[in-house]
Specification:
A: about 250 residues, alpha/beta, Rossmann fold, four-stranded mixed sheet, about 30% helix, B: alpha/beta, Fumarate Reductase Iron-sulfur Protein, Chain B, domain 2, 3 domains, six-stranded parallel sheet, 23 helices
Chain lengths: ~250, ~475
């Protein structure tokens, strides 16, 4: 097929050189001009994302694991997939212990060696008289192939970090890594994203410039602006078509 | 006339006679136009970002061969295998080769107009490979055994009731419920099992970044992410014009595409892929392939005027605003790309013998040009293609295919009449005296009069009247 390559490139080069194009200069000012004051970015992101059914939770550095645990219990979510080797994953596990009233010894799910299959929903009641399944933590600690059926068939929620959010469009920046796989934010029915309230940008352009994306792109970088949706049936909006049915942004305030 | 040429006139008459179809389109297009207008309420912002996006596309075209080489170099460095195809046959052969090596039995596909151009699904099915469209609209159209009627909303010609009946007929255990949420959830259940089991995922490309070797895909449903993330092999298809120079060139395009297409500020997902799974990573495809397709594009590129066709970012806004498309719908064109952009792109790809009628399915109202986010002079190109269709030996494939001796004679007579004052006076005087006596059913008038009332000629010409009022001849 290298024949196709050289014939295509030769033809493009010859015809372009016969009739060169002089494009106008690219003036990025109309995008650079889009700026919001510090105090307006988060409310704007929230308004835009809530308009497409994103849900928001507020927490602090010290209590977000407890806030998350309480939310999952309240919503009856039985299992949460997380990235155990990330800072956030470690904080989650620490915070989970303190948020949990009395995890039976040896049953702390993330310590179990058998993997996801060994984690049935926890039967313990929550403090404060609320009752609900005690969500089980499942570490994403193996290749997709070894987790696929659980991921598609039983795991209910996935937790990821973000690299901030964009005020113009209400979009989260996701930067999957070896420790925080891509499917964590894609396959579980609920995607929970940690957003640091001090990591907000005005535009997509500003975020990529300030974070130096072009120097080292990850294998997959995503902007996520809501739960999965479609309007393919008679323009009627329906949520949760292929990706997550719910997107929860857990805002960590400094 | 080419025996295989689609008959747009007949197909559009059939579409116009279908009140269900016309109602479905009218509702959808009105909604899309008002949602788009709301996104561009700030005309200063629209003008500025539009000029920027047009400059990004023009700059990419000005360096097209160099950028394609750079894209290839950077993709290769990232571990993406790059393939080149001059024709759709070559592209299909490349796809089959990759599928055979992967021993693939099941393919899941995200939306890709290039694969529609290739008729890839039919090729795969003939080879015994199950291929499933996963964009909900494409899935509906595939179940129905038809073609997309819009490049962004493939099933826009069907209403909820029609889709409910289709699902009941085609999906096991489906209930007969005319409820978009239920139908969407039903498709979710069917397709999730397929994403999990698929051997290969396929997708299109909205923009390919030469600087970083990155493939950008935008979508709302998450099926695109599923196709490019879960199966062990991902094959992306792009027309060779889809390259942009730098990563910073992506935001202007992404800023205008969803707003123009569906009136949303951004799609739910912007998916930027810069390679297969790396060592140590736990997911993502083991192989990523990029197929770069020419299929006539280098020919379009060769002509400095027609080249502007390749600026297109495939938002579909020109369809939503076209007085012809919104009445007859996408199927009447019988082409992978309908509407204004289709009317200029498809004849250049497939040739004027087969597609010579398409540039005539246009009132030249300029609505498409006014809303095009990258300022493609669609109507000028349309006019040029009408000329190419009757002028043998031009720049476009099958140029001159619609040339007719009789038409050429009429026009040279017309030119001669207008070049001589005496001939002009005799001809106009004859028309004002005899024109009303000529029956509308005359063969030479019939094409016009069978859908229009024959005009009445005034008893005296304008020149006569002016002269009577004392206006001097120049």
């Amino acid at each position: 097929m290298s024949d196709a390559r050289s014939s295509i490139l030769t033809k493009l080069r010859t015809t372009r050189d016969a009739h060169p194009l002089s494009p106008p200069a690219s003036d990025f000012a109309p995008i650079e001009a889009k700026q919001w004051p510090d105090q307006e970015r988060l409310p704007r992101i929230r308004r835009l994302m809530e308009a497409v059914h994103t849900e928001f939770l507020d927490a602090t550095e010290s209590d977000w694991p407890a806030v998350l645990r309480e939310f999952l219990a309240r919503e009856g979510v039985g299992s949460l997939l997380y990235a155990p080797a990330t800072e956030a994953g470690k904080r989650l596990v620490e915070g989970w212990e303190t948020a949990s009233p009395s995890p039976p010894r040896g049953e702390a799910p993330h310590e179990s060696p058998e993997g996801p299959a060994a984690h049935p929903p926890h039967p313990n009641p929550l403090p404060g008289g609320e009752r609900g399944p005690n969500p089980t933590l499942i570490p994403y600690d193996r290749p997709l192939e070894d987790l696929k059926s659980h991921l598609f068939e039983s795991i209910e929620a996935g937790l990821t970090t973000t690299r901030g959010a964009i005020a113009e469009t209400g979009s989260l920046i996701l930067w999957p890594t070896a420790d925080e796989p891509r499917t964590l934010s894609l396959v579980p029915h609920i995607h929970i994203a940690l957003l640091r309230a001090d990591a907000l940008y005005d535009t997509f352009l500003q975020a990529m410039r300030e974070q130096g994306w072009a120097q080292a792109m990850p294998t997959n970088l995503l902007l996520v602006s809501g739960p999965s949706k479609t309007a393919d049936i008679e323009q009627t909006l329906a949520y949760g078509v292929h990706g997550p049915k719910r997107l929860i942004v857990l805002v960590v305030h400094p | 006339m080419d025996g295989n040429a689609p008959d747009f006139a007949a197909a559009s008459r059939a579409a116009l006679a279908d009140p269900q179809l016309r109602g479905n389109f009218r509702r959808a297009m009105d909604g899309l136009m008002s949602k788009r207008a709301a996104q561009f309420a700030d005309t200063g912002e629209w003008t500025g970002v539009r000029a920027l996006a047009a400059s990004v596309r023009l700059r990419a075209l000005s360096k097209l061969p160099e950028l394609l080489e750079k894209l290839e170099e950077n993709c290769t460095r990232n571990g993406i295998a790059v393939h080149w195809a001059a024709t759709t046959e070559e592209a299909n052969a490349i796809a089959l080769d990759i599928l055979h090596k992967a021993n693939a039995k099941l393919v899941v596909k995200g939306k890709s107009m290039v694969t529609e151009e290739m008729h890839l699904n039919a090729v795969l099915e003939k080879d015994g490979i199950e291929v499933l469209e996963s964009d909900l609209g494409e899935y509906i159209v595939q179940l129905d055994g038809t073609m997309p009627s819009h490049i962004i909303m493939p099933a826009i010609h069907l209403n909820t009731k029609q889709i409910a009946h289709l699902f009941k007929r085609k999906i096991k255990d489906a209930e007969s419920r005319e409820d978009a949420a239920y139908l969407t959830d039903l498709a979710r259940r069917v397709l999730r099992a397929k994403f999990q089991a698929a051997d290969v995922g396929m997708s299109g490309v909205n923009a390919a970044v030469a600087e970083t070797g990155t493939l950008c895909l935008i979508e709302n449903e998450g099926n695109g992410r599923m196709c490019t993330t879960v199966p062990p092999v991902h094959i992306a298809f792009m027309g060779l014009e889809k390259v942009v120079e730098t990563l910073e060139d992506v935001p202007p395009v992404i800023s205008l595409l969803p707003r123009s297409a569906t009136g949303q500020p951004i799609t739910t997902y912007v998916n930027m892929i810069s390679g297969p799974r790396k060592d140590g990573e736990k997911d993502g495809p083991r192989e990523v392939h990029l197929v770069i397709l020419d299929n006539g594009r280098s020919g379009i590129y060769a002509d400095p005027e027609l080249r502007d066709t390749l600026r297109c970012i495939r938002c579909g806004a020109c369809m939503n605003h076209c007085p012809v498309y919104t009445k007859v719908g996408g199927h009447a064109y019988e082409a992978p790309y309908p509407g204004p952009i289709g009317k200029i792109l498809v004849p250049q790809i497939e040739g004027l013998a087969k597609r010579g009628a398409m540039p005539h399915a246009c009132t030249m109202c300029n609505a498409c040009v006014e809303i095009c986010p990258v300022k493609i002079p669609i109507v000028e190109i349309m006019g040029r293609l009408r000329v190419e269709a009757v002028k043998p030996g031009g720049a476009v494939k099958d140029g001159g295919a619609k040339a007719s001796r009789a038409e050429a004679m009429v026009w040279s007579g017309w030119a001669a009449m207008n070049a001589s004052p005496t001939a002009y006076r005799i001809a106009t005087a004859a028309m004002s005296r005899l024109g009303n006596a000529a029956p509308a059913s005359l063969p030479m008038l019939k094409e016009w009069t069978n859908v229009r009332t024959k005009p009445r000629f005034a008893g005296r010409t304008l020149h006569d009247l002016a002269r009577a009022k004392g206006v001097p001849d120049v």
